Amino acid sequence: MKIAVFDDDRVGLVEEDLIYDVTAAVPDAGPEFPRVYMSRLIAQWDRRKADIEKARREARARPLSEVTLRAPNPFPLHVVAAPVNYRKHIGEIGARSVSGGASAVERGFFLKASSSVIGAGEAIRLPRGSTRRFDHESELAVVIGRQARNVPREQALSHVFGYCCLIDVTLRIEPGRFEEERVARKSFDTFTPVGPYIVTADEIGDPGDLANRLWVNDELRQDSRTSALILDVPGLIEWASSVMTLQPGDIIATGTPEGVGQFSPGDRVRMEIERVGSMTLPVVEEEDFAPRRF
Q: What is the block-wise mean pLDDT of the chain (294 residues), using blocks of 10 residues?
């Protein structure tokens, strides 16, 4: 099943190039803050699934091209991210990285702001007037399906609801001049595109060998497979749940392979995860200057 959020907080099921509006089965869906209706739906999935399927049977199909895809979970409680999790990515950006050669095995994870999450039908917005370097990072996203605390890797996949594509947009440090904390550099609004929808775990099975590709303006920049992850999906869930309680709807960004690079306003970035989907987003400049310039 492919579950999408579209237009003004509508919930739909995607089948090929059509979408079926099932919002009637998600009674708390809507723009009122906090927009946690997808986390609630995921947490209550066992008893809500039949209502979702009934709503699908009664819904009228619309072309997917006619709607705007939003983040498939607009307001996750946590966005957990692996810092360096592909061997060939270690040291790739030199002094603009703070990894020091250590991987996610040693460093664990960091958090991104939930407010940075957007959908496949939106735009990546870079700070107006910035001369800094902004990079793309193509990642498989894991959506947690039920509360997870101290979960051993052998049980980890049973806590997964589904998978998405995710782009981790990053403001790079400039050694000796600009060395902001990682969370700040990765948490600007729009810096975590997720989508195009959630593909439920039963459709993916083992996520351990999926193709992961990213293009900028049709130039292939990143091309790898999740089999190259240093810390795989079960390992990431085990690591994170050893520290914090993961909640339904939480997103884990599994890390990016080699090939990260700079993009700028006017570019278009496309990423694709095998069997999960693809999304294309324009890169634009913010309309207004921020009080703190970057």
A: 98 98 95 96 97 97 97 98 84 56 79 98 97 96 98 98 98 91 96 98 97 98 96 97 98 96 97 98 97 93
Find out whether the peptide bond into 76 is cis, omega within 30 degrees of 0: no
Q: From start to end of the chain, where are the E strands?
A: 2-6, 10-15, 18-21, 61-63, 69-70, 79-81, 110-112, 117-118, 124-126, 134-136, 138-144, 160-167, 170-171, 192-200, 211-216, 219-225, 251-253, 261-262, 268-273, 277-285
Nearest to 204 by CA among 164, 237, 261: 164
Do 146 and 61 lie in one domain? The reply is no
Q: Which domain holds residue 44?
A: 2-66
Whole-structure pTM value: 0.95
Same domain, 12 and 62: yes
> What percentage of the chain has pLDDT greater than the value 90?
89
At which of 66, 92, 114 does a domain end? 66
Alpha-carbon span 102 to 91, nearest angstrom? 9
Written as one letter, the residue type at 274 is E
How big, in percent rounded to 5, are the helix, strand and coil portions of the chain?
Answer: 25, 35, 45
Q: How far apart are CA 75 and CA 119, in angstroms?
A: 11
Using one digit for the tens of pLDDT, what is the confidence trace for 51-69?
A: 999 999 999 999 999 999 9
* Domain co-membership, 41 together with 96: no
Residue 22 lies in a domain: yes
DSSP string, 79-90: EEE-SS-BGGGT
Distance CA 68, CA 62 (A): 12
Per the structure, the count of domains in the chain is 2
In terms of domains, do 266 and 122 share one?
Answer: yes
Distances (CA, A) of 252 to 41, 139, 199: 18, 10, 14
In tens, the pLDDT along 233-256 reads: 999 999 999 999 999 999 999 999
